[in-house]
Design a protein that fits this description.
It contains 3 helices and 2 strands, in the order ββααα. The protein is mostly helical and 85 residues long. The protein has a two-stranded antiparallel ribbon with strand order 1-2. A hairpin with an 8-residue loop joins strand 1 and strand 2. Helix 2 runs antiparallel to helix 3. The protein starts with a strand and ends in a 10-residue tail after the last helix. The structure holds zinc ion (ZN).
């Protein structure tokens, strides 16, 4: 049983690899950190995730990098948007 930790440093939440949505991902963000993101980002990411598995999967990957960076910055007390990837 593989367990994956939240991608935000020092967050100790874990999830079983089988439970991860969409399957096959190696990174995961816990609910606490995901819900701390601006709603517009969460909505955009969820929408992009629906297209995973198709040819339009790239926006979801890009958005994931952005929301991950933003969650880590928010957890570290840095405010404002980020542009990564
Ligand atoms: Zn977390």
């Amino acid at each position: 049983m593989t367990r994956i930790a939240c991608c935000v440093p020092f967050c100790r939440k874990m999830i079983r690899a089988e439970q991860i949505e969409p399957a096959g991902r190696t990174e995961w963000m816990c609910r606490t950190h995901f819900n701390a993101l601006p709603a517009i980002r969460r909505r955009a990411y969820r929408k992009a995730c629906k297209r995973l598995g198709s040819l339009r999967a790239l926006p979801a990957v890009r958005l994931w990098r952005r929301i991950r960076a933003q969650a880590i910055e928010a957890a570290a007390g840095i405010k404002g948007g980020v542009r990564v990837g």
